[in-house]
Design goal:
Layout: E1 4-9, E2 12-20, H1 28-36, E3 45-49, H2 55-60, E4 67-72, H3 75-87, E5 94-98, H4 101-107, E6 112-117, H5 134-140, H6 147-157, E7 158-168, H7 173-182, E8 185-194, E9 203-210, E10 217-218, E11 222-223, H8 233-240
Helix pairs in contact: 4-6
Length: 242
C-alpha cells in the first residue's frame, strides 16, 4: 500500500500538502523558483510546467490572487495535485490539467503572462543519475520533455513580453541562454544559488522575456544555508511567505 503523508507547507500553517514517499517531493528548488518569478500587474494567468503534486501553485496562492494552471503528465502526481488543491480549498484559483506539456501548448488557445518551471535537470544519457523509481526518473530526467521543448512550448503560449522563470544547474546555463534566444525569449534576469558562502554555485535561476529587449541583469547571489547548515535568513523569509 502506498503511504501518503500530510504536512504543513513550509512554515505556513494555513496550507497543507500531501506527498508520497515513493514520488518526487518538493524541495528548496521549488520554493526558490516560485519566489524568483516576477508577477507583474498585467499577468492574468500563471502556468506551471510539470506541476507534480502542485507545490508551486500552492506557494503561488500565498503570493498572488492570479489564476494558476498546473500541467502534469503523470497520473499519480496529477491525482496528488488534485487532492492538494481540494485540501486547501483552492479550486477557484488553481486548475490542474492532466496532459503532456507538448500537447497542452499545441492546443492552448490563450496567451499567458508568466510560466514557471522546475524542470528535469538531467539528460537521459546521464546514467549515473538515473533512479530505478519510475516516478523519480521522469521527474529528474528529460524523458517526457527536454530543455528545448520547454523553450519551444513557452514561446507558443507566452504573450508578447510574457516571462518564463526556471531553475536549473549552472553547467547547463549556456544551453539555457542559447535555447531561450533561439525561441525569442530574451534572458533578462539571472541569479546564482550557492549552498553556503565560499562554495561553488549549484543552481541557477533564469528569467526570460518573450520578444523582450536585450539586457541581462545579474542579481546578487542567493545563499541557501549558513555555515552551520541552517537556512539563511532570506530562505527563512521564503518559508514564511514574506
Amino acid at each position: 500500500m502506498v503511504m501518503e503523508v500530510e504536512n504543513y507547507l513550509l512554515e505556513n500553517k494555513n496550507l497543507k500538502i500531501i506527498q508520497r514517499k515513493d514520488m518526487f517531493n518538493f524541495s528548496l528548488d521549488t520554493v526558490m523558483v516560485t519566489h524568483f518569478a516576477f508577477i507583474s500587474k498585467k499577468v492574468k494567468t500563471i502556468i506551471d510546467f510539470g506541476t507534480n503534486n502542485a507545490a508551486i501553485p500552492l506557494i503561488l496562492s500565498t503570493l498572488t490572487d492570479k489564476k494558476i494552471v498546473g500541467i502534469e503528465i503523470q497520473k499519480e502526481a496529477y491525482d496528488l495535485a488534485m487532492k492538494n488543491i481540494s485540501l486547501n480549498n483552492l479550486a477557484e484559483q488553481v486548475q490542474i490539467i492532466h496532459d503532456d506539456i507538448n500537447n497542452f501548448c499545441l492546443n492552448y488557445q490563450d496567451k499567458v503572462g508568466l510560466i514557471i518551471c522546475n524542470p528535469p535537470f538531467f539528460k537521459v544519457q546521464e546514467d549515473s543519475n538515473v533512479n530505478d523509481n519510475e516516478f523519480l526518473k521522469i521527474a529528474r530526467h528529460e524523458i517526457n520533455i527536454n530543455l528545448e521543448q520547454i523553450m519551444q512550448n513557452a514561446s507558443f503560449i507566452l504573450e508578447n513580453k510574457g516571462r518564463l522563470a526556471l531553475i536549473h544547474r549552472p553547467d547547463r546555463l549556456i544551453e539555457i541562454i542559447e535555447l531561450m534566444k533561439k525561441y525569442h525569449i530574451e534572458p533578462k534576469r539571472l541569479r546564482l544559488i550557492y549552498p553556503k558562502i565560499n562554495s561553488e554555485a549549484n543552481m541557477v535561476l533564469v528569467e526570460g522575456m518573450f520578444h523582450g529587449k536585450s539586457g541581462l541583469k545579474i542579481e546578487k547571489p542567493l545563499i541557501a544555508h549558513n555555515n552551520d547548515g541552517t537556512y539563511s535568513d532570506e530562505v527563512k523569509k521564503m518559508f514564511l511567505g514574506d
